[in-house]
Write a structure and sequence with these properties.
Layout lengths: L5 E2 L5 E3 L4 H7 L3 E6 L25 E3 L2 E2 L3 H10 L4 E5 L7 H18 L4 E6 L6 H10 L3 E4 L9 H6 L3 E8 L3 H17 L3 E6 L7 H6 L15 H11 L7 E5 L1 H20 L5 E2 L5 E8 L2 H14 L8 E4 L4 E5 L7 H7 L5 E7 L9 E6 L2
Helix pairs in contact: 3-4
Length: about 375
């Protein structure tokens, strides 16, 4: 009798149980800590590396989208998204001594700040993994490690198991016969040594690897932005054909779950932390507000007073920002639907419109959509 396949979100499925790290990621409760864009460039994966040129080969650390300039930035970002844990990635965060030291440092910092229940998992190729590294990670408090190994490095996974760390693998599902054989070998090996899970990620195509994947004959799946044709089908096949003698959990994570639900939920949590009273958090985790702009700050001051008096808008639902060349007045977006409000605004020489922005400020400020006031 085959093991039952359970449907998850956005086309994802699993057999067995869903790893805790995945459960937290799905809810947007994991900080993504990127520790350096360097790795050993393993032959089994360097050809499709999805890391952007901005990060690849660099020593920079990112907490989600935030470039880390001080360790406090990591703690602050974790608080803003109300994180229950962190995933440590790269490059390979265990690639060299500097990255390993940073990795151990941040595991300690996060555990000290948020306590032992704060769940931390780490991604590595395992190419240089050894008992000493496993011991250091265990001592620091790492909860879970996810390998993406070449077959000659499968044996290194045992070092983590020996130290009591929860162990799994996380690999893309590349739709070729050769890679399907690799996946079966990996799953079989992990099940035999008593590892906990295998995560099968839908194979993605993007700007960093688009040219190389095209040369190798991979195609974009119809009606998708970044999914390789045939990846999901192969993952479903593996889940259906898992021998019932296996006890290991196997999870297929779709691109739409990773780039949709997961990201959207993290954005919502961040938006709720940074929103001003006049902003509204959308279902996509973006922020909505109305902005009136003028090069004449006196006009904005007059409008502010008039809106306070005529529309009885509370002070905390309005914000004036005086810049070098223009002045902004920010307000709740729904005023744009009030005829008396729009009639009033048209009497002034100002620009007005509804902004939808990503949940970031300052250098990362980005407008998703702007709708001028009609």
């Amino acid at each position: 009798m085959k093991r039952p396949v359970t449907d998850s979100l956005s086309g994802s499925q699993y057999v067995g149980s869903l790893p805790l790290g995945c459960q937290l990621c799905h809810r947007g409760q994991k900080l993504v800590l990127f520790i350096g864009g360097k790795c050993a460039q393993p032959k089994n994966c360097c050809w499709y590396c999805p890391i952007s040129q901005e990060r690849k080969g660099k020593d920079d650390v990112y907490a989600d989208e935030i470039l880390v300039k001080d360790p406090k930035d990591v703690i602050e970002e974790a608080k803003l998204i109300k994180a229950f844990g962190a995933s440590i990635t790269g490059g390979d965060p265990l690639f060299n001594e500097d990255q390993r030291e940073l990795t151990l440092f941040y595991i300690n910092e996060l555990k000290n700040e948020f306590g032992e229940p704060f769940h931390i998992h780490l991604y590595t190729s395992g190419i240089n993994f050894d008992p000493d590294i496993a011991f250091d990670l265990m001592e620091a408090g790492l909860d879970e490690i996810r390998f993406h190994p070449a077959e000659e490095d499968f044996h290194r996974i045992q070092y983590a198991l020996d130290k009591g760390i929860r162990v799994g693998a996380e690999v893309p599902v590349i739709p070729t016969p050769e890679y399907e054989e690799y996946l079966w070998n990996l799953i079989d090996y992990l099940d035999n040594i008593g590892a906990d899970f295998v995560n099968l990620n839908e194979f993605e195509i993007g700007e960093p690897n688009y040219e190389e994947l095209g040369k190798r004959g991979f195609k974009l799946k119809e009606d998708t932005a970044a999914t390789v044709e045939g990846s999901q089908e192969l993952a479903y096949k593996i889940l259906r054909e898992l021998p019932d003698r296996y006890t290991i959990s196997v999870h297929f994570c779709s691109t739409s779950l990773k780039d949709g639900n997961q990201l959207r939920n993290r954005y919502k949590r961040r938006a709720e932390s940074i929103q001003y009273p006049y902003e509204e958090v959308t279902e996509d985790g973006t922020l909505l507000y109305l902005r009136i702009t003028s090069t004449n700050s006196t006009q904005i001051d007059q409008l502010y007073g008039l809106l306070r008096k005529k529309f009885r808008i509370p002070r905390n639902m309005m914000k004036i920002s005086k810049l070098e060349l223009e002045t902004h007045l920010d307000l709740p977006w729904f005023l744009a639907e009030e005829k008396s409000f729009t009639t009033l605004i048209k009497k002034y020489d100002v620009k007005a419109g509804v902004y939808e922005i990503l949940p970031f400020r300052d250098d990362l400020f980005e407008v998703c959509e702007y709708t001028p006031l009609q």
